[in-house]
User: Fold these one by one.
Assistant:
Number 1:
Amino acid sequence: MRDFTGRVCVVTGAGSGIGRALATELAAHDARLALADVDAEGLAETAARAVRLGAREVHTEVLDVADRAAVLAWADATAARFGGVDLVVNNAGVALTAGVEEMSWDDFEWLMGVNFWGVAYGTKAFLPHLRRSPDGHLVNISSVFGLFGVPSQSAYCAAKYAVRGFTESVRQEQRVSGSGVGVTTVHPGGIRTNIVRNSRAAAGHDKGRVVALHDSVSRTSAQRAARIILSGVRRGRSRVFVGADATAIDVGSRLLGSVFEPLVRVVSRRRQASTLVPAGPALSPDGVGSAPALSAEGYSGPVTGG
């Protein structure tokens, strides 16, 4: 897909972050937009910006991507409303900072519901419609944390590895079948969005310090990330790495071999130490921080990843 003019483009997690940036970039190319997010206020603001930038048509849906029936219904309604679908970006995501023994089952399942099942539901729901497009394209957002494991990110890494494997398999299926649908996996590094501010954290992790660390290592703006992703779609890339940090991690993980994992441990110890709660009262008695259960966000990834 080399031109987005007049194309029907679907973006989840469009209420802020990379999702909002994708919507505004596509609007500037005169695309027709179907946008979804669980955050109604953020979604409305994105839609207003898209209209001001010249989007040919904008429809919004307040949607929890972890709700399979809702996603399936939205996909069919979107295709019926627009007469088809050309581009789908499964971008909605959330974050959780907690070791595997610290995290609650509810938090673990909540993250997997949005970050993995939301992508799987969106893919299965929209793929039949994409196959009817002359050059349909599917984009699923993984992360650099889908390339290597990180302490306190076991749930997040599990979801992002799953998205990576799932999307690569879908891409192979489309090529073998000759469907013509392009499929791209995106691995963002540190992106300046609010995903960490809206995240959940286990007791012992100071939310303010986690946010400060994320902000200090996130070098790429959401708008820049959106442009890189859409450039990858135009070029038919199977993988897109967003940010110099993402590229460095991809190359380093492959070239350094057995040295890479100990290096990750050293860096992680230093960064994790900087996010711990200072000596004093614990957070909540149930082991979960007080962060709200948040909106879908564009990707930056908790602490260091996308």
Number 2:
Amino acid sequence: MNKTAVFIDIMSIQKYIFSSNQLKDNIGASHIVESIFDELKEKFQCSYAGGGSALIYFNTITEAKNAMKEWSSNLLQTAPGIVPFITIEENFDTSTYAESRKKIIKKSIKQKNEFIPITALSAFGITADCPKTGLSSEVFCEKCADQDISYLSSVSYTKILKAEEANNKIINYFKDILNNDDNGLDKYEFPDKFDEMGGTKGENNHIAVVHIDGNDMGLLFKKQATEEEMKKLSAGLTDSVKSSFKQVLQKLIPLIDKLKRNGEITLKEKPANNGKLILLPVRPIVLGGDDVTFVCDARIGLWCAMEFIKAFELQDICKENKITACGGVSIVKTNYPFYRAYKMAEDLCNTAKKKAKKKRRNERNEIDNSAADSYIDFHISFGGMSDSIDRIRIKNYKSADNKLLYKRPYKIKEIPKLLNCIKKLKEKLPQSKIKKFREILYSGEIAAKEFINELNYRGNTLPAFSHSDEAKKGFSDDKSPYIDIIELMDFYPLSLILKEDL
């Protein structure tokens, strides 16, 4: 059966969501993107919608054009800054759904390549600049008193307005976890500021930006031959992502008291009608589709990423394929430009995905899904470095004899061994020796071997991650895991290293 179909793709979603250094703005922007197709889904037949794209059916091309004119006009007022790309296909054959969907997406890509971007003036000489976006300040913001701001651009203002709505929605979804009080009152709440993630007063506090993406999800969607299969997979994926994050919270909350007692994490509190609320050290920003982004206290970033992926792997999304995911954990200071921190997390996720794909290739250079595994890559920004992760590692993670001073990304199953090395190194060597060992590693294998021989002479041995050579000369296969281990020491609480990790 032929129908008129419209494919809508929102452009530059990541920049729209993550461009602000205020967490509340990011939360509101994410909610705007998540709910952007709600009006169309209510009025018209929707094949699928989510992740910044939608496929909608209409009876005639005239109806489709009129609907898009009305919707895009409303969008200018309710979600300024959002740029939709609309493609219309008059003869969409639903009986060959997969082929028709492929055709309209291909048409959309072709149109995008031919599209000449609109150049808009960010501001005019006679107007004040918005302190958040650099655009013209247009709206008085009564909700910005805590930020010492009076006027904002309409783009920033709508994000702030939607943040409260987004907060209510996510609190309602995780109500059974947040209502962790004997009297049924809220005990926990999600923070809406980066400096509410925890940390220690007076110190250079860090947050972790975590980006996780499912492996080969695009191929999985392409395999869906019918519209019903597509809808089922899309809904199942969204439910699985939320369920996985819920499981992370269920594991984290019982550990909070232990982390606090050991001084490994500090939690912020806020007054409430019936006492006080504990602000959780984690906050989801994007929680739907096949990719996830959340922020948390830097000291639980790797743990949260690992627990999320482990929970995601167990979800019943597709019985025919093993479901895996890769993650990037970008650890930065709280005042670091957030969009750059997000892009770093995304780049780290991509390096993890490249390694996962490489490991799945068999001897015939074919993809073997039975060998699929999940990987995590991480980076800790100690300064203001803004290069790509590849360039940073070329410049800063090579020894004098041209050996690699990192083994990242790591397979999820390998991380417990890495944590075991952290624990053992902390137990065996004082901080001064660990610092000295880090410096020696940059001199190369010969210097590292001499240092290790001296340690051995004094009765100390290094823990080996994957090969006994590491404990003897600091390297194996021209790579060393010890910089990874040393950098993680301050960003992974010993309380989270369980007995089964050892």
